Amino acid sequence: MSIILVTSLLTLVAIVVAMNFATPEKKLERRIEHGSTVRDPQFRREMSVMLGPGLLPGNHVRDLQNGDDIFPAMLDAIRAAERSINFETYIYWSGDVGRQFADALSERARAGVQVSVLLDWLGSVKMDDALLRQMTEAGAQVEKYRPLKWYNLGRINNRTHRKILVIDGKLGFTGGVGIADQWNGHAQDADHWRDMHFRVDGPVVAQFQAAFNDNWIKSTGKVLNGPGHFPSIPPAGDMDAHMFIASPAGGSESMHLMYLMSIAASAESIDLEAAYFVPDALILQALLAACRRGVRVRVLLPGRHIDSATVRLASRAHWGELLRGGVEVYEYQPTMMHNKLLVVDRTMVSVGSTNFDVRSFRLNDEASMNVYDRAFALRMTAVFEDDLAHAVRYTWDMWRARPLREKVLEALVLPFKSQL
Ligand SMILES: O=P(O)(O)OC[C@H](O)CO
């Protein structure tokens, strides 16, 4: 009798686990052929409708380099908020930076500004509860995204990785930065990471607000609307831009599709900075096909200061075929390079939270912004080349000569690459 009971219970547990992890939908399987280029209106039209929110004219995007630029700009914007602050982030850890944000958000909440903060549960495990209490007691609404619950196991691997700050519904920030002390400084040494964030003015900020709402609704069941969140936003510049989101709960292929379509559309150059570079087979094929048609592909990755040795192993396993196919691979030397940047044909720029890995393509909630503006793309190419000046080129000979121990470890981590 007890054996039957135990077997039934185990079967039940197995069914629940299988149901939690089942993903029945089909994913992208076929390579996208080169057709229109990123300068072609046809390409913009397709990206505009396939990724979700359409391209909007009239924006101004300014890059912020490293914590020295990023944190003062974000904190000043928070301190100047009059009606609403909506802030979603993955990493929020205790420390100097975390305290400065908590102080600024609390002060505004006390002043009557509606402050809504959404922190990933896993990304904020290293955040002191006192910071959270401080903000809540000041009147901010602070929510944790997908906290660990027995009935939520299938979602535990689906984090919000989005990095969005919206002030009064009309000033937006996105990019790679996390709220932690490693992002302080200007990448001057191994304890201060290299990263970029972007300050955005103009109509596209309404799409930032909508992206924030997506996860706010999932977490609270409430929508943030009204003129304090969606004011009329006048043009602030002449850049065309859109922000789009991806989530396993809907639109999960948007980021993957965006990269595949952009790479397929390239005619001259692809400049990619990727903090975590673990491409799947389709992305590898697309990059190699671009090289074959004469596109110069430059990939800048973290060097030995990467914060995840496992990612580095899974990443390196793929470098051989890329190097053999003509892709130029560079390793950033001074510190951990946390950038997420794609520039195609010095025309289209993609930035935001999305890493160049299967986790970002399939498992996380992400938000990225594409900007179509020649001057901005040239500016970001200059930033890319400046980073390249702090990098060392990695060659096919170096790859072939890597130690046997590394090759064995690569083979061991590769089966788990979608989870890294
Ligand atoms: O996941 P990201 O790109 O926000 O990076 C976070 C770092 O991995 C934290 O160690």
From TrEMBL:
<dbReference type="Pfam" id="PF13091">
    <property type="entry name" value="PLDc_2"/>
</dbReference>
<dbReference type="InterPro" id="IPR025202">
    <property type="entry name" value="PLD-like_dom"/>
</dbReference>
<feature type="domain" description="PLD phosphodiesterase">
    <location>
        <begin position="156"/>
        <end position="183"/>
    </location>
</feature>
<feature type="domain" description="PLD phosphodiesterase">
    <location>
        <begin position="333"/>
        <end position="360"/>
    </location>
</feature>
<dbReference type="InterPro" id="IPR001736">
    <property type="entry name" value="PLipase_D/transphosphatidylase"/>
</dbReference>
<protein>
    <submittedName>
        <fullName>Phosphatidylserine/phosphatidylglycerophosphate/ cardiolipin synthase family protein</fullName>
    </submittedName>
</protein>
